[in-house]
Amino acid sequence: MLSLEDPTVLRAFRSSRSATPLLATALLCSACDRRGTAAPADANGFVDDTLRAAVVTQPVPNDADDPAIWIDAADPARSLVIGTDKGDSTGGLYAFRLDGTIDSARTRRPLKRPNNVDVVLGAVIGGETMDLAVTAERGTMSLRVFRLPDMTPVDDGGIPVFDGDKSRAPMGVALYKRPRDGAVFAIVGGKSGPRDGYLWQYRLVAGPGGTILGRHVRAFGTYSGKKEIEAIAVDQTLGFVYYSDETAGIRQYHADPDAPGAAVELAFFGQTGFVSDHEGIGIYPTSDTTGYLLVSDQQGQRLRVFTREGRRGQPYRHDLVAVIPVSALETDGLEVTAAPLGPRYPDGILVMMSTDRTFHLFDWRDVRRAIERRDASVTK
To answer: How far is CA 163 from the centre of its chain?
Structure first.
């Protein structure tokens, strides 16, 4: 089927001097919205249906890489985007307001090449409930832990990972809060690792003087050996962890280290269609069991959208439903939430890193419309 998601078709349509009216109509119709209205076209007749950010943040000094979202329960419109700037010695964790401006009071720098970051809400550690932001600091081979909303460091200088093996410098991190007991875990991926047991999982526990320590509980996860594993995301409700095995595909496991079959790979999908790197992953729920898995096709400068739920009899079959060009440039990390964040973002936001040192904030209503326009033209 001809589709605007196919770059080959688009190039052919742009360059062809003999494109038939039928071909042009087929291409344009795939970009029509549900009301049958065609998207605006440029001077060459090409439909520009790129998903554009509602807000672009102020730039960081060095190299933006990965975002997380902290939700202010008292006033969701005052929630924050926490983004990494991976400068080798002048990096930092930047706090952005939802209008894209930097909150300097809650920005933490300098850090030594912080790569990815994640946030957990309502963590219970040492009998105390708290919100935490955790980043993988490559320059110190550690996890750095900050308590929100003030971004107060609570890690006594850092939690060492990978037993100090510098060849496995930490890059990706995702947090999992286990529903049955509230235990919080950090799942860490590095620059390199073995074919099995690439990811290391640490339980966050109380240390002396209100600090937080990490206790290693398992190594898991298959690796293709092709590139590296950086992007990791956890479905808190369903208890699954997804990670990008770059240039190979997306893999799925149980997030709970004590779950039956926790060491067994549940799915390996998205193995075709990506230009090169499989990168940032986010999970947008539409119910307790349904929704979308969003994955950055980095060099394609687009978002690939899969079903969160499987098919009948195939619970781990994640179908591709949309491929969406985006304004963010060569996205490494992304994050998404379905939580209402005030009147500007009533259905939540998608945040994507961009190589111009910024983060792009997308209104989920715009993302939903893009998915609805495209789902009928994707080959499953």
So the answer is: 26
| Pair of tokens at residue 128 | 């105390």
Buried b (16+ CB within 10 A) or exposed e, 168-201: bbbbbbbbbbbeeeebbbbbbbbbbbeeeebbbb
Per-residue model confidence as pLDDT tens digits over 259-302: 999 999 999 999 999 999 999 999 999 999 999 999 999 999 99
Do 370 and 322 touch, CB atoms closer than 8 A?
A: yes
Name the DSSP class of 368.
Answer: H
What secondary structure, in 3-state letters, does 273-342 show? CCCCCEEEEEEEECCCCCEEEEEEEHHHCEEEEEECCCECCECCCCCEEEEEEECCCCCCCEEEECCCCC
Amino acid in position 359: F
- For 15-82, the DSSP string reads H-SS--HHHHHHHHHTT--TTSPPPPB-TTS-B---B--SEEPPPPSS-EEEEEEE--SS-GGG-EEE
Q: What angle do CA 151, 155, 160 make, to 5 degrees?
A: 130
pLDDT class of 49 with cuts at 50, 70, 90 = confident
User: What SS3 state is found at 112?
Assistant: coil
Contacts of 264 by beta carbon, 8 Å cutoff, 6+ apart: 253, 254
CA dist 338 and 288 (Å) reads 12
For residue 21, what are its two tokens? 């009216």
Dihedral sign, Cα of residue 168, residue 169, residue 173, residue 177: positive
Structure tokens at 333: 């990390």
